[in-house]
Design brief:
Helices cover about 15% and strands about 35% of the residues. The chain is built from two helices and eight strands.
């Protein structure tokens, strides 16, 4: 085989589990501007599955399961640390999110790249980073 690297092109989607499906559904639709691609309920598992597309084409799968364990810590739990979303205008994102009742943290500057960023959390405490990309 001439090229021994995996032929990967991008992240297809990120899957999240919620403890409160209606609350998380509302957050991603109304606060994060997601659009529904598909929504289903699996009765045998008592589980919802919601396929979403965020602005920029980012896809999320939102699942609900009865009594999922809570996230152990924020954001240093083993596994997925946070979901990072790129934006060309961090100030506009922070203003819109604040107007929608979300509470982004104060804007910080990445000590290595000089880029500005902030964090907010979804209703289940999943950390969401907004990272300003200006190129």
């Amino acid at each position: 085989m001439a090229d021994s690297r995996l032929p990967l092109s991008r992240v297809h989607h990120v899957a999240l589990i919620t403890a409160d499906y209606p609350r998380a559904r509302r957050f991603y639709l109304e606060v994060m501007d997601a659009e529904i691609l598909n929504e289903s309920y699996r009765e045998e598992r008592d589980s919802h599955k919601l396929d979403l597309r965020l602005p920029g084409g980012i896809q999320l799968e939102l699942f609900s399961f009865p009594s999922p364990p809570p996230r152990p810590s924020y954001p240093e739990a083993c596994g997925l640390r946070h979901l990072a979303l790129a934006t060309p205008d961090l100030d506009a994102c922070v203003a819109l999110l604040g107007a929608r009742g979300a509470a982004p943290e104060p804007i910080r500057v990445d000590e290595f790249t000089g880029a500005r960023f902030t964090f907010l959390a979804d209703p289940d405490g999943t950390p969401i980073e907004l990272y300003e990309v200006t190129d």
